[in-house]
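Regression check, magnesium ion case 734:
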Amino acid sequence: MDTLTALATQEYKYGFTTDIESDVAPRGLTEDTIRLISHKKGEPEFMLEFRLKAFRQWLKMTPPTWPNVTYPEIDFQDIIYYSAPKPKAKLASLDEVDPELLDTFAKLGIPLNEQKMLANVAVDAIFDSVSVATTYKEKLHEAGVIFCSFSEAIRDYPELIQKYMGSVVPVSDNFYAALNSAVFTDGSFCYIPKGVTCPMELSSYFRINNPDTGQFERTLIICEEGASVSYLEGCTAPKFDKNQLHAAVVELVALDNATIKYSTVQNWYAGDKDGLGGIYNFVTKRGKCAGKNSKISWTQVETGSAITWKYPSCVLLGDNSVGEFYSVALTNNMQQADTGTKMIHVGKNTSSTIVSKGISAGKSNNSYRGLVKVLPNAENARNYTQCDSMLIGHDCGANTFPYIEVQNNSAQIEHEATTSKISEEQIFYFLQRGIPQEDAISMIINGFCKEVFRELPMEFAVEASRLLGMKLENSVG
Amino acid sequence: MLEIRNLHATVNDVEILRGINLVVKPGEIHAIMGPNGSGKSTLAKVLAGHPSYVVTQGEILYNGRNLLELAPDERAREGVFLAFQYPIEIPGVSNASFLRLAYNQKRKHQGEEELDPLEFDDLLQEKIKIVEMDKAFINRSVNEGFSGGEKKRNEILQMAVLEPQLAILDETDSGLDIDALRIISNGVNQLHTDTNAFIMVTHYQRLLNYIQPDFVHVQMNGRLVKSGGKELALLLEEKGYDWIKDEEENRQTAASN
Ligand SMILES: Nc1ncnc2c1ncn2[C@@H]1O[C@H](COP(=O)(O)OP(=O)(O)OP(=O)(O)O)[C@@H](O)[C@H]1O
Ligand SMILES: [Mg+2]
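Current build output:
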């Protein structure tokens, strides 16, 4: 019997009135819902306390209105916050998969076996995903790296969770972070011990028994002294989800001389041409460079979702610590994105780099919002920000909102911004050399995004660039 | 190879070409001269299929096919090449990758294997000699920050790589220093065979000292009003365009009487 069922049939502790036999919580959010989630997951007491504290905070908060995006008000009492993960029926072969999805896979150049995994097709014996995953896990184990689901981590490493969870993004940080802290269902946990360089890139979709982590995902990565890791989140394949609201929290902690590189490719369903049905992606991502000489680097390629609201940030506490943010955000049709970063310089000789590339097409709206903050004790802080926008067509918009707050005058802050357009004459130049329009656009866009793609792991970069090309098909008139 | 019959074309509803007739056979070199604004670049762009130009009358046959039915990129893959009067800059796209993509599109079109970056680099090293260009240029972004003359030379490099059947050079000689003019002319002469043809738009007779045209045409007001051999260019250099203008006006009054 698995732990979940065991706990679910356990004696009823907290006096909540919900039917504990049910695999689905009733709609809406009350303390009872939270007790149910925690109970169903068999969590220790501290976890329930954490959730309840977050929930009580959340009740006092309101959704942020400052982002440059518009959407109908969300009814938080109309959401189901818990349903037990059900295994999806495996398909026998790729023939059973939606041909449109296969077409997309082909365009992205995703290898056959990965296609199968993504489309939930049983994988051939030789390339058995379980065995791949097992060797993966063994290798990590040898190195002493912990990489598991958040639920497993709560069960197996409660002291690490207790020490670090909420230490970077406090429960009261913002409305959606508070909501996530109250109701998160699962996510990823990784811990790199002292002095260890993680022997491979950690990828969220290779995690064993990867459940549908759902709409409130939580990730925590801890790099001990002198350790380093590169973590990949998401994939270029299109991702559909019946849940419209997604509010994830990602926390990174880098101790002395540690390095964390976190790369994301996000391609969630963006809705139809009129913007109907797309995902709202409201994420809080933050890294703490807690130790001296530590480094946290965010790289993101954001192409999906109807609305994107995210600001992967770095708090540069340790002296000589380094924060980086490399971002490509593409919006098309009715998509809206308000994304950027915050670099908070606290320690001495801290430095940060921000490279943001916004591409807007169709009727979309793309905003960069960035904060560079230098606190009084941050001697010799340095920041370089480069913020480029590209417009495709005449109906889209691009905005930049750079905020700079400097409280120590030894700081050196540089900011560069450009806006460009793909002109009809440029396209004609390509055409005249025999290059079709679609290739022309993807070549120009690739050139535009070069500094960001360079930061991605090689294979990912190739897929990401194809993805952008595909997202822009038919978008130059 | 190319046959233009009574071609009329407009841009923004203004008629610029008003009845062009021209026949170009394989192996021929044609020069088109004419005053500023007479529609020479317009003719070049119409041949290449620029979307701003609307053909309102007439037809263009290319190797027996209706050229106007082909999309601009198809025309290019079929061997029509335009060296632009004002080559455009494409930031972020390297000359080498741009050229390779163009070259491979053409290979693919002809049912040939595409070249990988290494194989293509060998080819490019050969071609770059034709235009005596510094190798550093192939890794720079297409035309970005190139001087006027360097841009023109880059156009010829592209031509050398793509080996078009019909090349239209729109004032490729303008803005070139004396050495560059000689180099580019040599390039054209090397690439010229008896199966391809060139249309060269130019303002200067001196280009024709290097490249021997079979025909020289004078374009005025959207028409080719006078054609001749190489000596016509010398005459134009000496006497300007006024006498042709007069001739043309006389002819027109005669026609309308
Ligand atoms: N997009 C446009 N909109 C309006 N007028 C145009 C446009 N393009 C060209 N023209 C006009 O068409 C006429 C012919 O231009 P074209 O560039 O073909 O001349 P040209 O013979 O090449 O001149 P030059 O010797 O100066 O290069 C000019 O009067 C020009 O202003
Ligand atoms: Mg011209």
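Comparison notes: Chain A has one domain: 22-472. Chain A touches chain B at residues 420, 423-426, 428-437, 439, 443-444, 446-448, 450 (CB under 8 Å). No diff flagged against the previous build.
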